[in-house]
Amino acid sequence: MSAQLVVRKSEDRGYANHGWLDTHHTFSFASYYDYDFQGFGSLKVINEDIVQPATGFGAHPHREFEIFSYIISGELQHKDSMGNVEILKAGDVQFTSAGTGITHSEYNIHPTLPVHFLQIWVKPDNSKLKPRYQTMNFSKSSKTNNLIHIISPVEDHDNSTIGINTDFHMYASLLEPGHKVIHTVQGTKKSRKVYIHLASTGGELSINETTILKQGDGVFVTEVKQGDEIVFESVGDKIAEFVVFDLA
Predict the structure, then answer these.
(1) How far lies 159's CA from each of 151, 152, 230, in Å?
(2) What is the pLDDT of residue 215?
(3) Where does Fe cation bind (predicted)?
């Protein structure tokens, strides 16, 4: 395998602190713009958000994106125009296919604790899809020293994953110090891309025994194809919580 790895350092991401919201942007978003970072294939947004107690994102519209939240800690209340109301907690992944258009709000109703989560947007293959909502929980025990498959293309996913309307896979892990997991690159096309994000919760992650990520870092992996393996090892003194995006 001749994988090419390019690190996106945490401190190089876009950043804003609005008081109620502390946010980092891997790609151009809102007032942050960087010509060189406007997405990676169909992956268009990775925001790492910390929302303070009793605050949040008021009702706002979306369309033509697959939008999902990966809850790291705390609680996030979701409400949308499809009638869904839910309080999301650590381990939950809340997925919305915005399609022809939805309105939703994301609010931290907890009186004292912040909520920490990843907000991710992916561009679907087709427009004018019917809006859809789904939540699944991926427990701490299932992710510990394991790489759990969370999202997969609708045409070949089963009840263990959330279906997305493009050739895209997401995985997550809680890797204890000294432990390793291996990701086998998915898909059927010759050329694939992989993006890895290490959450800002502590921990350090080695990739293929060379590249080291510290909290908040990410890495672009190119020049890989179906069947190639990427090896992850937790090399710090804390659990490394990370997500993997494998896409066409």
Answers:
(1) 10, 11, 25
(2) 97
(3) 60, 62, 104, 106
Reply yes or no on whether the pLDDT at 200 is more than 70: yes
Within 10 angstroms of residue 14's Cβ, the number of other Cβ atoms is: 18
Count the residues in the chain.
248
* Torsion angle (degrees, nearest 10) of CA 78, 81, 82, 85: 30
Distance CA 150, CA 157 (A): 10
Instruction: Report whether 204 contacts 235 (CB < 8 A).
Output: yes
All domains in the chain, ordered by first residue: 4-247 (2.60.120.10)
CA distance linking residue 53 with residue 21, whole number of Å: 10
Element (H, E) at 226: none
Residues annotated within a binding site: 60, 62, 104, 106
- What does the pLDDT look like over 24-73, one tens digit per residue? 999 999 999 999 999 999 999 999 999 999 999 999 999 999 999 999 99
| C-alpha to C-alpha distance for 25 and 225, rounded to whole angstroms | 27
Beta-sheet strand order (sheet of 85-89) = 55-62, 102-108, 75-80, 85-89
Q: Alpha-carbon distance 50 to 157, whole Å? A: 31
Q: What is d(CA 32, CA 170) in angstroms, rounded to the nearest whole number?
A: 25
